[in-house]
Design a protein that fits this description.
The chain is α/β, with parallel strands linked by helices. It contains nine helices and twelve strands. It has one domain: TIM Barrel, CATH 3.20.20. It starts with 10 loop residues before the first strand and ends with a helix.
Length: about 280
């Protein structure tokens, strides 16, 4: 696994303000680490700021960016990266991840747009990732994203992703649900895609739910329970590569905290099952 892989452990949960007070008061023992979008927390003060500080003093955190727009042709927002670096130091946040996409073009687009699968785009994006890593002074993890159309395609999705990761020499945030969603929408084999990922670079994983628009069209919403085929794909990833930290993403239609914790427990159970099996095979 990647160099950052051991910085967090177990099953994680995306922290949301709607249940921050509840978690501060009674932190769920099932959650091994937390993730936040830095844009939502870097300037926060008052009660939420104090509660966030209380959490970061006692638990491991990672950052998952929303606005860096790593694939854009707009100038890289280096001041944001410097502010991010300070924020991560202040809260001892373990590492930072971003999407392999863009969300700006002469202004913010408020959505994650797909990058052309071309060699020119590989060089452009990899150079921007390397610059971010130079400023932060550590590797970042880049996430395979869901997409619904490709502006230009000289290569397959997996070949494009692998080329960017190799040229940038960065880590990977492996999104299990995005692989499943894309496999349905673009008619490819999810397990074959998973097997082609650069597993030695995986820092951690995301797992989430999606919306079924039609039998052959899924929308990556992070707003529903995780379905069985996605759980099975996570188990397959552990079977292939060993257990790595895995975080539950839930952004919309948030249930009560206890329901989220149940899905975090499911991650833990799958992790434990594969760890036990590996130990038996090694005995």
């Amino acid at each position: 696994m990647g160099a950052t892989q051991n910085l967090v452990h177990g099953a994680g949960l995306g922290l949301r303000r709607s249940f921050l007070s509840e978690i501060v008061g009674a932190p769920p023992k099932e959650v091994g680490f937390y993730e936040v979008a830095p844009e939502n927390w870097m300037t926060i003060g008052g009660k939420y700021g104090k509660q966030f500080r209380a959490m970061t003093e006692h638990f491991d955190f990672v950052c998952h960016g929303l606005s860096l727009s790593i694939g854009s042709t707009d100038p890289l927002d280096e001041q944001f990266v410097r502010d991010l670096k300070q924020f991560m130091r202040e809260h001892d946040i373990k590492f930072y991840s971003e999407h392999l996409s863009y969300c700006s073009k002469d202004g913010h687009l408020y959505d994650l747009m797909p990058i052309p699968f071309t060699s020119e785009a590989v060089h452009h994006v990899a150079a921007r990732i390397r610059r971010v890593q130079d400023i932060l002074e550590h590797k970042i993890a880049i996430e395979n994203v869901s997409y619904y159309a490709v502006p230009s395609q000289e290569m397959t999705e997996i070949d494009f992703f692998n080329a960017v990761i190799a040229e940038a020499d960065c880590d990977v945030l492996l999104d299990i649900n995005n692989i499943y969603v894309n496999s349905v929408n673009h008619c490819y084999d999810a397990e074959a895609f998973l097997k082609a990922m650069p597993a030695h670079r995986v820092a951690y994983a995301h797992i989430a739910g999606h919306y079924v628009e039609a039998e052959d069209f899924l929308v990556d919403t992070h707003g529903a329970d995780i379905i069985d085929p996605v759980w099975k794909l996570l188990a397959k990833a552990y079977q292939l590569y060993g257990v790595f930290p895995t975080l539950l993403e839930r952004d919309f239609n948030l249930p009560v905290l206890s329901e989220l914790v149940k899905e975090v427990q499911t991650i833990s159970h799958i992790q434990h099952a594969w760890t036990q099996q590996h130990e038996k095979q090694s005995a």
